[in-house]
Amino acid sequence: AQKVTQAQTEISVVEKEDVTLDCVYETRDTTYYLFWYKQPPSGELVFLIRRNSFDEQNEISGRYSWNFQKSTSSFNFTITASQVVDSAVYFCALSETEYGNKLVFGAGTILRVKS
Amino acid sequence: GAGVSQSPRYKVAKRGQDVALRCDPISGHVSLFWYQQALGQGPEFLTYFQNEAQLDKSGLPSDRFFAERPEGSVSTLKIQRTQQEDSAVYLCASSLQSYTGELFFGEGSRLTVL
What we know:
The structure holds 2 protein chains of 2 kinds.
Chain A: E1 3-5, E2 10-14, E3 19-21, E4 24-26, E5 33-39, E6 46-52, E7 59-61, E8 64-69, E9 74-79, E10 88-95, E11 103-105, E12 109-114
Parallel strand pairs in A: 2-12
Antiparallel strand pairs in A: 1-4, 3-9, 5-6, 5-10, 7-8, 8-9, 10-11, 10-12
Chain B: E1 5-7, E2 10-13, E3 19-24, E4 31-37, E5 44-50, E6 53-56, E7 65-68, E8 75-79, E9 88-95, E10 104-105, E11 109-113
Parallel strand pairs in B: 2-11
Antiparallel strand pairs in B: 1-3, 3-8, 4-5, 4-9, 5-6, 7-8, 9-10, 9-11
């Protein structure tokens, strides 16, 4: 069975600090997809990134970067120079490949950025 | 509207009542998903539609839960004889195709069963 573990329940940082959110996954599939979603207080999940299991290149998008390591089954997310607007719940998710969008989510990490 | 729209945003039901939650996906989106999110947890898959066909309902927790999408656009999630454990946020998501990887979520319907 597929499983996603986000061990950090809640993280608090001061603005401009860097912060890394951890994600560890389990799957028996050789082809799979990993995602990060952001859930602000409004409740709507916002897509951040999708990676497939064959692409281990790290990705950077502005202040966001992702580190995918198949050897440790991890897909960590780093926010550089955090801002108050980054405060939200962040979810890591894994998809079953039969339906690429049927996601198995982790429990989420609450990120609080204080000014 | 441009996004996924869900109604009602908040619903309070007495135990034993039936409820219906509506989802208006983004126009033209083929795939539609329902997820259930309990307080402090990640969303959990309930069911999946491709157009009007319900291809997967393996996540529906009991036969009190029923979902439909009769014309391949608007979907309704119905919960019969609600129980307290049904209290959760019900999220609807849609995508253009099933493999695009990007789901667009609505803001959810928060159900509280007293």
